[in-house]
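User: Round two. Same drill as before: sequence, then structure, for each protein.

Assistant: Same drill it is. First protein:
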Amino acid sequence: MYNVKIKNYGNGQVQTRIYSHLIYTGDKEKPEKEELESNPFDDKPTKEVFDFDELEKEKERSLYTSMKRAKGKIYDYSRANVWDWFVTLTFAPDAVDRYNYTDCTRKLSVWLNNMRRDSETNFKYIVVPERHKDGAFHFHGLFAGCDSLGITYSGHCTKDGEKIYNIGRYKMGFTTATRVKKNEAVTKYITKYTTKDLMEHIKGKKKYWASRNLNLPVETTYSLEDVEKQSLHNELTMDDCLYYKSCMYNVGLTTHNVRYYEHVIS
């Protein structure tokens, strides 16, 4: 268990979190086993529900937890690596059923694996889905070391004057690629695609694709007394703190607080 977590992203960037409460890891005390009723349709044991409002709340909590976990992992992968390109991959109707998430992800996985296998420049990627209002899926990603992907200038530019490129070796639909100028900006940008609506439509399915050669931040945790936490807070806020945020949230009837600190170290 811990109440302080430090993430070192390996590029000089360090994030510290101080919790008002203890975070438990590993084995926890298990609650008493609930009595189960027999399902009248298949005789299998099932939990009897008396409060449907509470059931909906539980579904919401589960959805939120899944979304938070996915966003956290995407953020960590994105921030701990240096990227060359921000890309968008779409699917042509005659190539893939873009309304079928399983079909889209199967074809995408094969393509990514092929590009990784053929790469001579240590191809790295993190890719996430986005769902259109009409239900169609496409994907956004951050790429690095992808000289073998046949990226060429499209002849067009964004409204800000940035050149738009296409990925020549992607044949399943339309692509765009723009050069990454600020790693921090694209890290925040790519996590915004992981929304509650998306989670509802891909429940139980893969939520992002990350190559195995990506870095992850090194995490260190501590369990400190309140006096020690306050001392750490004072030290962090006085030591060239680039960013500080304090967040309050409720778990049942209990209010918790998490404080975030950002630093750059040499």
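Second protein:
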Amino acid sequence: SKLGELFSEGDLVVDGGNSNYKETVRRGQMLAEKGIEFVDVGTSGGIWGLKEGYSMMVGGSETAVSALTPALKTLAPGDDLGWGHVGPSGSGHFVKMVHNGIEYGLMEAYAEGFEILKAKEEFGLDLHQISEIWRFGSVVRSWLLDLTANALADDADLSEIKGFVPDSGEGRWTVFEAIDLDVPAPIITH
């Protein structure tokens, strides 16, 4: 509510962080009552976004998103790539929340697979070599696998890597949403 006091009717506020979509909806409604536009931008790309472009899931009114389009195109991988207006206020952060739930599930699957490969000691498998093979032409190739391959190049048995991903909240929020919507999500909820 203090934030709303800093802006005037006709202003446009953008939340490009990883806010809980329910809070985003509440903030959007509060600001709309004061004639202030509010856009939520679920942003992915991390530290590589500056070089590669950011993936942006945008929620807000058509008018507000249109006003932001030049900035969004500048930050995206391409004018019409990696970003889109997905719905009303709150939807951008909702889509990003689910994105992160999927990301955690993918990371878990890679971790489990490499753990199985590592445990098969009789074959003396080179995990880095396997990650490099999978990076090209394989159906499991992805940017997350690229990052895994880079990590394996520096630390072949990943002894310096923690066996868990710190909880940012978004994975948990995705689980709660799956429960609320009665949608089975065994990978994400694990």
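Residues 54 and 140 are 22 Å apart (CA to CA).

User: Perfect.
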